[in-house]
Amino acid sequence: MNLDWSPTTSYLLYSCVALAVTFLFHTILSMKSRKLNQPPGPRGLSCIVQLLRASWNESVPELAFTWAKTYGPIMYFNAGGTKFCYLNTPELSRLVLAGEDYRALTSDRVGNFVSKFTWYDGKDLFFTKFDVIQRKKRKLFHRGVALYGDGVEKFEAIVGGELDLVLEHLDKMASTGQDVQMDQVLSEALKNILVILINGEKPSCPEDADAIVEYDLAVNKLASEDIHLVLMAAPWMRYLPGRYKRACDKVIETREKAERIMFSKMKETFDPKNLRGLTDVFLKSREEPGYEFLKDDQHIKGVLTMLFFAAHLTSRATLLNTFLILLHHPDVTANIQDEIDRVLGDRPAKVEDRQIMHYTEAVILEVLRYTTFFPLICIRNVKTDLKVENYDIPKDTLIISNIGYFHRDPKYWDDPWSFKPERFLDAKGQILPADHSVRKNLLSFGIGNRMCPGEVFARSRVFLFVTRILQRYDVMPPKSEPLVSCHPDNRVKMLVRQTPPFRCQLVPRGSPN
Ligand code: HEM
């Protein structure tokens, strides 16, 4: 047999051996803590091999799903020195992440390789402790987004403006009778709205929004399981030529431009009497007592670029999943259109209409459950040793809520792999209240002190998009290609899983076809 020891083969072999040794070393070190009554879970070499294989194939959530079936409601394992505890039920997620006895101990996140590398050693808003600085940043986020009072009107105007452009674009395409590339048209509007939220104004040219998206995709690649799990255990891998170094280099390469657009350009034209968007809110606040830490530009840059990361692909996934699912469920589309005709007639929806358009709201909740495109969430760090259900969870374990598993567990959801908005409605067709047991089992936005602060923004925006587009068009499968499957397995695998590109036909409502 002729073995060809090319540089790539040697590199791969070297990397695999080095990684296996690193993981094994940490696992042996962790054996001494075995005396504790830790929750069940995979152990030893088999755990490492399965994890390495899954991270290579970007299928850690699938592995977590299988393990949850094997090990039950709570599981624990050690991956190369990082201790993980997965909560595989909504009850345990609520208890450990938000319960009175636990939440003070489980509200921290810690910097990991991605946050340290990308956001100046953890000067962001996500991978941080729940300390005074974090709470102040969250407060400024709410002040800047201001989805209350006049803020709602401003939000409706921004989204409405972008939707006008979307409809103009769609009208042109629909009039040619050609299929519409839905993901492209909607993504464009979504990213513009985020840039407006951050800067207070539209990107000065399309390339600016694209540059931010390019940076965002680079960070997502670095944060994806296949890369970051390995870099967490073996940070030195970033210096070796190959996929890990490439991922790190891409972040550095794209960061400068994104920060120039979101921060430096705004700083140059900042006027404290005329606050345009979130960047200005942060710039102004650094003059307030208690907010001096913001005089370090890296804190503001870290928050802004991290916000784009938190908001962009999650919103994109929700909106595109909604349309892809509607294409497969014409009955659901017809029900939404009935509700639009009954409640709105020809006027565009307002955010407050969410409270009376129960069916549309139920569809959005079911999209979040059925697709669960962000399957492993929360990622909190345990502050001290914990006892959960008689099990010992050591200090510094990472707690993860495995919503990818329990959002599809038949114990909580009847026929979980079917799309059924009715599960969120009562017998009178009213949306179940947020404290209803069914709603409480849906944890797409997390729970507790670190729950997603962008939930209202995200759900309101999807609502405005869906109602406006379905008010105008019937959406139908494409003529030029088979309809892409809407099954959650058929997704582009990354940290926040995305629909594959898809087309559809848009036919103006009421026109003969
Ligand atoms: C459907 C869309 C979205 C989903 C599913 C989602 C989901 C999540 C989840 C699961 C977390 C972690 C929560 C926890 O640990 O308990 C989170 C955190 C966060 N999200 Fe969202 N998110 C979405 C949209 C947004 C948007 C639009 C924004 C901003 C405008 C945003 C900003 C944030 C921030 C800043 C955090 C970190 C909060 C903290 O650590 O204190 N998200 N999100």
TrEMBL record:
Q: Does the keyword rRNA-binding apply?
A: no
Names of required cofactors = heme
- The answer, when asked if Heme is one of the entry's keywords, is yes
Q: Name one GO molecular function term.
A: iron ion binding
The source's domain of life comes to Eukaryota
User: What keywords would UniProt list here?
Assistant: Heme, Iron, Membrane, Metal-binding, Monooxygenase, Oxidoreductase, Transmembrane, Transmembrane helix
Record-listed heme binding positions: 452
Q: Which InterPro entries match?
A: Cyt_P450, Cyt_P450_CS, Cyt_P450_E_grp-I, Cyt_P450_sf
* Segments traversing the membrane: 12-29
Short name of one Pfam family: p450
Q: Which family does it belong to?
A: Belongs to the cytochrome P450 family.
Q: What is this protein called?
A: Steroid 17-alpha-hydroxylase/17,20 lyase-like isoform X1
Q: Which organism is it from?
A: Biomphalaria glabrata
Gene transcribed to yield this protein? LOC106073674
